[in-house]
């Protein structure tokens, strides 16, 4: 009987081996449950598995994210540790990565690690962060990393997807964009040395009829000449059928170390082009100071009828808003957004000035046009939806 059992087991294993080595439909179905990093390792087994893995990768076209908050136990920002652990379980290959982190780790105020960082020269600290990100992420991915006074994020833990406003404390998120059919995402970084017509065209900001959304972040905007520099970008965008959203941040880590002069102002961002992209944004002005008023304004996003699948919400708010603006009531604007769009994750920051306006971008239809001055604000919040098809 034992001999018969062993023989039966061998037959079963032989059949399983035959199926896994020859039936692509079965292998492909199994691989849909495998995270991307493990999928790359599996793809080395044989040609069939490699071909199945490639087909599975092409289906993974939805944005995902990793986020972290609270004090890190390690000598680095909590987001970096979260990414090291979380990237093992991600079901896409990041092509473009947008990261935002609070500025407490980069000002040298709150721990021995931060004091140590404060003693380092700034380019060295920047290099440490970018080197760490390059080791964590695929070598050919574009990385845009910015630092802001406060963070708005949606937890990546599936058990709790309620967005939260962090006006203090350690927090950050990384939005991971895969290669998507009909969607082209390009990063840009301009300073006085690099701004030119050819650079604008290369970034997709000029001579690009498919441009739909521009996420734009200025740094060191208080310096002489920064406002005029920013207007060079905003004036043509304000007259176009493009959704513009963003604001002024503390700093942006440079991918090219020799791009900017030390202490120079500049602009970074992402252009999103393609026929499948739709977007809408509303501006919560200074007079919006109650939860009811915030809901009335944000509810206008509903009227745009933007699809909510594979859609991301962005909230770019003034540091003077948050609970300080709502009589001590926390998380007002993020809660209202979640009430109206419970399935859409929300990300953004509290910064030093906001960029955007009321606008809807759908196919060839655009609601609202404005000049560069009408795109820049203070004491406001720009709330946006971006649908990626």
UniProtKB/TrEMBL annotation:
SUPFAM superfamilies: F-box domain. Residues 226-358 form the FIST C-domain domain. It comes from the Eukaryota. One of its GO terms (biological process) is regulation of skeletal muscle fiber development. InterPro entries: F-box-like_dom_sf, F-box_dom, FIST_C. Pfam families: F-box, FIST_C. Transmembrane segments: none annotated. CDD domains: F-box_FBXO22. PANTHER family: F-BOX ONLY PROTEIN 22. This is FIST C-domain domain-containing protein.
